[in-house]
Design brief:
Largest sheet: 8 strands, antiparallel
CATH topology: Immunoglobulin-like
Helix content: 10-25%
Number of helices: 3
Strand order of the largest sheet: 1-2-3-4-5-6-7-10
CATH architecture: Sandwich
Number of strands: 12
Number of domains: 1
Radius of gyration: 16 Å
CATH class: Mainly Beta
Shape: globular
Strand content: 25-35%
Amino acid sequence: MSSPIPVFLCALGCLAAFSMPLRADGFMLSGDGYAASFEENGEGTIATYPALPYSVWGISCPLDEKTGRRMCTIYQLAEGGIGVGFKSPTVPERICVIGHDAEDLPGMIMIDSHDMITTDNDGCIPAGKAMFQLATGSRVATKRFEGTSSEASFASLPLQGLPAAMIVAGRVMRGALHH
């Protein structure tokens, strides 16, 4: 049985993936208004274009010394956003609320008007619980707790740029971006 994730990624912008050639300076342009930059250290950003430098997503792909492969996480650059961690180029593994660090309280994630999803105490959910919603959604709302405070913080952010960020993460993990 095949996984629906590659189809999901295509729904997010397969055409854009082929129209984002990497320039020698590590900069890519997509046909849908986003630019991506990627550095040798495995860090990068996805920004609106031509209104640079308004970055909407960050990407972190550290090199695993044992395997020689990069494992990526993409994350919203605004406070209270989400991060998506990948276990392979086409399979997101976890979605986490950035900044949630309460040891005994779960966070929450809501995409558009869908039901709130309760996270674990680390602020994460398995990606399969919300990837379809992310693919079709336009906003994400989060609830997080920081440290020992029992006072929740809330955020509501647009999901713009997510397809481009996922494409870049996949290309990096497949080794398609080199310097």
